[in-house]
Amino acid sequence: MVFLRLLIAGLILCVLWRPRRQALKSIKGAWKTVLAAGTLLAGHHIAFFEAVNHIPLGIVATIEFLGPFAIALAGSRRALDLLPACLAAGGVLLLSGGDSTSLPVVGLVLAVVAACCWAGYILVSARMATRLSGGQGLAVAIAWAALLSAPYGIVHAGSGLLDPHVLWVAAVVAVVSSVLPYSLNLEALRRIPPRVFGVLTSLEPAAGALFGLLVLGQHLAQSQWLGIAAVACASIAATCLRPGKRRISRVRATSGSLPEKGSARNGAGILSATDKATIHSPDRSSGNVGDLHASSPRHDPNERP
After folding, report:
1. Distance between CA atoms of 137 and 221, rounded to whole angstroms?
2. Which residues of 21-47 are buried (b: 16+ CB within 10 A; e: fewer)?
């Protein structure tokens, strides 16, 4: 399913965006970025689904979040930025249910590999989003990921890849879980930093828990509901704590209120930049240049007081 999912998604995106070799070649470093994104994406898919074969899905999703969580911690420049990241991490740990049973080392290692690949994909995709417009880079990256995962898919599925039912299900999964999510992720990385994006990805385990409850009938413990609430609050806090335009406007307002060098002085004090522009601006009605002394009466030396 991994190979077919990436293959169909790559074909759909290539038809939609029609990536051109010359367009990617004209941008410095574009090909390296696109191929790196596809390689990390293929590694993430293979490692994630192999980990699910050894350990439960909830624990794999919890370990996978450690990658974006590391990005959130590394990109934090304020102590306040650590609050949503730590809150999300605590929520994900609560979602795991605290299962203390022994887990296979192979599954844990594969989950850690998936977390590292996902973190690397977020960073590379952020660079790809800034260098390439549209979805040309994403289309090539997913097509390259499908090519790299082809041996894995052929070995595990074989002739079952040609089953019409399998192809139909793979097409639906490719659109729902690859084409739409990765396109939206790329657009999100054009608007928010990778640190905030990493925190927002913590919604995935919570969404999976809700899906299991509503569709699969998997009931959750009280601690897991608390984890969902913690993750939701962390995602809201991550977006609300971003330095916005208000801070920038304050800096501009402060710098704009400072007096300029060499400003004219009169008896009342310092003339503002607006006053000086008004004084020295040309008079549109008469076509003459206005002056400060021209508006005041001149003193005649022959005139007696």
Report:
1. 42
2. eeebeeeeebeebbbbbbbbbbbbbbb
* Nearest-angstrom CA–CA distance, 80 and 86: 11
- Distance (Å, whole) CA 1 – CA 13: 18
203 touches 232 (CB < 8 A): yes
d(Cα 207, Cα 198) in Å, to the nearest integer?
15
d(CA 74, CA 292): 58
pLDDT in tens, the chain (305 residues): 789 999 999 999 999 988 887 777 777 788 999 999 999 999 999 999 999 888 877 778 778 877 887 887 777 677 777 787 788 788 777 766 655 456 788 988 999 999 999 999 999 999 998 888 788 899 999 999 999 999 999 998 888 888 888 899 999 989 998 999 999 989 998 888 887 787 777 677 667 667 767 776 767 678 777 877 787 787 777 767 665 544 444 444 444 444 444 444 444 444 444 444 444 444 444 444 444 444 444 555 454 44
